[in-house]
């Protein structure tokens, strides 16, 4: 129930309710907007958000890795929230559990640490990443895709509002597959939602209570 | 006796020279003040309440320095005058300065508020004036200055003006905390409050003086103001809208009243209404141009000041205003007040009525203009309430952890605090008298370790413990940020609105502008403007010609009906069944509407509860009419929805107004004559309330203010929008994060408490349910919408309650 398979743009995607996609043919786990270090950044400035948020996010990522056994992890931008802090160190420790997994980061606007930090953490940085016909770009508006390529992005933290009879309304995170580009939901639990309005025929999946539900 | 003292004689002689003599209550207050007592003065505006305490302080000064009282300069701070409104400070200061000048005393009067220039503040800190008029926020900012205790060495008296306005709000808690500090710094300090009449004057005094003080005095001015209430009654009540909130249809009936008066204040309940009224009057009666002005909180301060000045001079015929003119100095020319829509409470209505006819013997005239037909019943209820002198109480805020956290950081950024002393002071306040030691420890650890000392990677910084054992803030950056965020008034981010060519118009909420596209038209300060773009936190606009425009709706416009008015309202509806014979002209005029209600459904007596079950194309509606006010209805609706949802998986959308509430579902609602009493019963009340999902939703809304006050949400430095985007988060995100990962957080608990005890008014809810349990329930199934249900049905602010699985609900939903 926690996953849904969906074939689109010649590729087969496994959408997980844990805000990730598994791309079986490339043994790649895809996530976006991890915002690692966000809570530490807040706490260092005297704003007491819970300190264990990074652990919770990385624990969820760990379970996804155990479930799918990927050989590569692709993070479509905003992996770290801000400048260097102790959450980054926590990630380093976490990273040592999976030395065999390649970590690719498609740089996002939050990824502002010096290159050597990423090197030390075993992270390969890319401005854009091309695999098969897929072009990964953090911000869908800033892609550099060729004609035959399909863009996969993060950045937006997509959410969608649904309406029901009796004037009900509900807003949930979602996967969006448009004609030009796809959007991944933000991975971190410490992120908000930005409402998107898909066109009628564009595939859209909402995440609700551990389920992936196709809306259209 | 004191009344023979030199000071006393000088003051009474000075008054006599002006042809005045002190009111009895003023002399009583002087007497108490001179005996070193604290207390509360209860007097209406316009009767010299300022002088009851200020002149007392002067008498004391003269008595203490009988030969040198005129010569002695730079005596240090003697009197602090706390005022809730910046605008009031200037006028009070002017009045005080006049007295001082005429008596040749060398005192200085200073003002310290958000409007005071940095230069003046610095000068004050070098040499404090003898009298400092200050807002609660500026008082705390003063406590955040290094070495602040030296300012209060000579302080004798603190007066808290308009205390009824502060009591019951977190600004009141700020005053309580500041006073607790001052009492340590200036032993023997006297605390006085000045309050309009409220239902709980004794408690109001106790909050101000602290629960430890048992000999406070209440000084009452036995002066009564006569108030005349008239209703503007629509000529054809059948055709007057059943719902709505503008009342513009009655504009032409308001005009003759305005024309016959010298100056009129027209009060609306929201800024949006004020803008609409202003525009409509100018559109339909262009001859008013130049004689009419607009006054509300979003208008440029300079323009507001001009309006106030013009009111004093009597050059304006009409000012359309909001609560922005509820308080403050009296405008003599004002002889008529028009209230558009329900004022929702007796006290507010009295206050507004009091804005007209100031001389002690003059009659205050107020007109009630209903915005929809049934509102006329409220006018009738207000009349009775005024006759019987039932005025609402203001409930003091208890255990406001957010304010305490902010206050302790304030002390931390100035000189640091000793936790033992701070605990005793904090516990001496009314708000925190029940603080547990565990809670205090949590507060301290939240400030020093962010609540999680055990996490090895943690870099939390706010307060640190110094070698002397003081809790202090050592980070300059955090200190600076904190000083800019002192206060408990939380508003949406406001953007300035300016013309492309320059020229400031006012401020507007960011949330409103974000819904507009360039080229849209909106209204502000009574002008029609074209939205061009946002640049550097400023909305740039162009002047636009006449035409349609969007009127911004400001938040906070929905004031709930008070319990007193609710009670009166039920009594009036009781008369509705024989409306044609009613003594009240309002009820009588509504009789056609009541006949229709009776024909379609029923009119409940005082010992009956009406429930209407109606089917429309929107779904199945259940309308319930307890007449208890919006807040109680919100909770009762959630409770009833929850209990029904336990019978069967069902989803409701909920709406309410002050008369009743609605449950709307896409499925039939299984409420029957047989189970109705049980579904609205008292059994398992607390458990059901807490389990009902909406408790979380309500708490989430309360958490917004809490998070800002406690410093969890950083709103950015003024003018520097982008620089701190890595620190931005929303309160609902923080709420979810705390709920999932730190459920013991005291601020989270506070949010639930505020939702339960303040928002839900649990006591009132119990009373209402108790009453319902003895009432007969009348269940009707009208074939179409009734006059009672219509205003509720058209309400667009709705909430949801469900017992269905999320996935099941989603499967029946669509994206449009």
TrEMBL record, chain A:
This is Putative phosphoesterase. SUPFAM superfamilies: Metallo-dependent phosphatases. The lineage of its organism: Bacteria, Pseudomonadati, Bacteroidota, Chitinophagia, Chitinophagales. Gene3D superfamilies: 3.60.21.10. It comes from the Bacteria. GO terms for molecular function: hydrolase activity. Residues 29-117 form the Calcineurin-like phosphoesterase domain. InterPro entries: Calcineurin-like_PHP, Metallo-depent_PP-like, PdeM-like, Pesterase_MJ0037-like.
Automatic annotation (TrEMBL), chain B:
Residues 250-398 form the Helicase C-terminal domain. Residues 30-216 form the Helicase ATP-binding domain. Pfam families: DEAD, DEAD_assoc, Helicase_C, WHD_Lhr. InterPro entries: ATP-dep_Helicase (IPR052511), DEAD/DEAH_box_helicase_dom (IPR011545), DEXH_lig_assoc (IPR026362), Helicase_ATP-bd (IPR014001), Helicase_C-like (IPR001650), Lhr-like (IPR017170), Lhr-like_DEAD/DEAH_assoc (IPR013701), Lhr_WH_dom (IPR045628). GO terms for molecular function: ATP binding; ATP hydrolysis activity; DNA binding; helicase activity. GO terms for biological process: DNA repair. Keywords: ATP-binding, DNA damage, DNA repair, DNA-binding, Helicase, Hydrolase, Isomerase, Nucleotide-binding. Transmembrane segments: none annotated. Belongs to the Lhr helicase family. Lhr-Core subfamily. This is ATP-dependent Lhr-like helicase. The lineage of its organism: Bacteria, Pseudomonadati, Bacteroidota, Chitinophagia, Chitinophagales.
């Amino acid at each position: 129930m926690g996953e849904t398979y969906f074939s689109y743009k010649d590729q087969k995607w496994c959408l997980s309710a844990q805000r990730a996609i598994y791309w079986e043919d490339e043994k790649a786990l895809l996530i976006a907007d991890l915002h690692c270090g966000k809570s530490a950044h807040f706490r260092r400035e005297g704003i007491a958000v819970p300190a264990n948020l990074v652990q919770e996010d990385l624990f969820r990522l760990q379970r996804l890795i155990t479930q799918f056994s990927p050989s590569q992890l692709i993070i479509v931008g905003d992996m770290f929230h801000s400048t260097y802090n102790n959450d980054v160190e926590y990630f380093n420790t976490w990273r040592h559990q999976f030395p065999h997994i390649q970590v690719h980061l498609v740089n996002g606007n939050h990824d502002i640490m010096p290159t050597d930090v990423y090197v030390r953490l075993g992270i390969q940085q890319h401005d854009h990443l091309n695999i098969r016909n897929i072009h990964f770009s953090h911000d869908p508006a800033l892609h550099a895709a060729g004609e035959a390529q399909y863009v996969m992005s993060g950045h937006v933290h997509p959410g969608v509002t649904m309406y029901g009879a009796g004037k009900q309304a509900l807003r949930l995170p979602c996967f969006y597959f448009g004609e030009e580009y796809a959007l991944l939901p933000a991975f971190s639990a410490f992120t908000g939602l930005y409402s998107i309005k898909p066109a009628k025929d564009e595939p859209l999946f909402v995440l609700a209570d551990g389920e992936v539900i196709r809306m259209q | 006796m004191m009344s023979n003292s030199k000071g006393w004689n000088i003051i009474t002689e000075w008054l006599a020279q002006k042809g005045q003599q002190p009111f009895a209550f003023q002399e009583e207050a002087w007497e108490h003040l001179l005996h070193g007592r604290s207390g509360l003065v209860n007097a209406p505006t316009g009767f010299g309440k300022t002088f009851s305490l200020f002149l007392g302080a002067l008498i004391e000064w003269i008595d203490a320095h009988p030969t040198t009282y005129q010569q002695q300069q730079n005596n240090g701070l003697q009197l602090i005058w706390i005022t809730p409104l910046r605008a009031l400070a200037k006028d009070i200061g002017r009045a005080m300065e006049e007295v001082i000048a005429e008596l040749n005393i060398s005192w200085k009067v200073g003002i310290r508020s958000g409007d005071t220039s940095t230069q003046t503040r610095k000068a004050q800190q070098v040499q404090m004036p003898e009298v400092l008029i200050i807002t609660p926020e500026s008082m705390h900012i003063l406590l955040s200055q290094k070495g602040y205790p030296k300012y209060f060495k000579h302080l004798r008296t603190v007066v808290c003006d308009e205390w009824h306005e502060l009591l019951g709000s977190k600004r009141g808690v700020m005053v309580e905390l500041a006073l607790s500090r001052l009492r340590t710094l200036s032993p023997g300090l006297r605390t006085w409050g000045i309050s309009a009449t409220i239902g709980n004057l004794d408690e109001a005094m106790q909050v101000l003086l602290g629960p430890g003080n048992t000999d406070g005095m209440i000084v009452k001015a036995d002066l009564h103001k006569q108030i005349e209430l008239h209703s503007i009654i629509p000529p054809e009540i059948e055709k007057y809208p059943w719902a709505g909130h503008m009342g513009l249809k009655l504009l032409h009936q308001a005009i003759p009243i305005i024309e016959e008066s010298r100056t009129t204040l027209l009060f609306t309940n929201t800024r949006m209404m004020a803008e609409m009224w202003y525009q409509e009057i100018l559109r339909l009666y262009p001859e008013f141009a130049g004689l009419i002005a607009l006054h509300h909180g979003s208008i440029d301060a300079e323009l507001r000041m001009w309006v106030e000045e013009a009111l004093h001079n009597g050059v304006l015929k009409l000012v359309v205003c909001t609560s922005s003119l509820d308080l403050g100095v009296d405008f003599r020319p004002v002889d008529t007040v028009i209230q558009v829509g329900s004022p929702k409470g007796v006290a507010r209505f009295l206050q507004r009525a009091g804005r007209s006819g100031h001389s002690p013997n003059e009659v205050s005239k107020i007109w009630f203009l209903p915005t929809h037909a049934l509102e006329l019943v409220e006018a009738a209820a207000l009349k009775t309430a005024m006759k019987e002198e039932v005025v609402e109480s203001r409930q003091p805020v208890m255990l406001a952890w957010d304010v305490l956290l902010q206050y302790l950081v304030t002390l931390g950024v100035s000189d640091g605090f000793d936790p033992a002393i701070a605990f005793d002071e904090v516990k001496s306040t009314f708000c925190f008298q029940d603080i547990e030691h565990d809670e205090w420890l949590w507060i301290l650890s939240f400030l020093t370790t962010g609540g999680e000392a055990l996490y090895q990677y943690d870099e939390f910084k706010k307060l640190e413990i110094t070698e002397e054992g003081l809790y202090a803030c050592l980070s300059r950056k955090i200190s600076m940020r904190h000083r800019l965020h002192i206060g408990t008034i939380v508003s949406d981010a406001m953007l300035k609105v300016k013309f492309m060519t320059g020229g400031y118009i006012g401020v507007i909420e960011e949330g409103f502008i974000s819904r507009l596209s360039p080229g849209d038209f909106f209204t502000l300060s009574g002008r029609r403007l074209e939205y061009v773009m946002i640049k550097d936190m400023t909305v740039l606009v162009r002047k636009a010609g006449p035409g349609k425009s969007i009127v911004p709706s400001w938040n906070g416009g929905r004031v709930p009906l008070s319990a007193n008015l609710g009670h009166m309202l039920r009594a009036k509806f009781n008369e509705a069944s024989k409306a044609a014979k009613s003594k009240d002209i309002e009820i009588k005029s509504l009789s056609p509407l009541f006949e229709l209600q009776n024909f379609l459904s029923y009119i409940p007596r005082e010992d009956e509860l009406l429930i209407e079950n109606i089917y429309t194309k929107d779904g199945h509606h259940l309308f319930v009419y307890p007449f208890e006010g919006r807040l109680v209805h919100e909770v009762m609706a959630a409770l009833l929805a929850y209990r029904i949802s336990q019978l069967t998986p069902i989803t409701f959308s909920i709406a309410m107004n002050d008369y009743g509430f609605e449950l709307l579902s896409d499925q039939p609602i299984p409420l029957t004559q047989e189970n109705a009493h049980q579904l609205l019963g008292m059994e398992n009340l607390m458990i059901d309330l807490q389990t009902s999902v909406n408790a979380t939703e309500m708490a989430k809304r309360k958490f917004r203010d809490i998070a800002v006050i406690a410093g969890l949400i950083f709103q950015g430095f003024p003018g520097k929008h982008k620089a701190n985007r890595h620190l931005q988060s929303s309160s609902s995100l923080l709420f979810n994060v705390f709920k999932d990962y730190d459920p013991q957080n005291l601020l989270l608990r506070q949010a639930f408490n505020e939702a339960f005890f303040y928002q839900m008014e649990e006591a009132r809810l119990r009373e209402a349910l108790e009453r319902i349990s003895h009432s007969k329930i009348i269940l009707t199934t009208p074939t179409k919408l009734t006059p009672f249900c219509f205003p509720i049905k058209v309400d667009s602010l709705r909430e949801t309650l469900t017992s269905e699985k999320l996935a099941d609900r989603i499967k029946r939903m669509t994206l449009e």
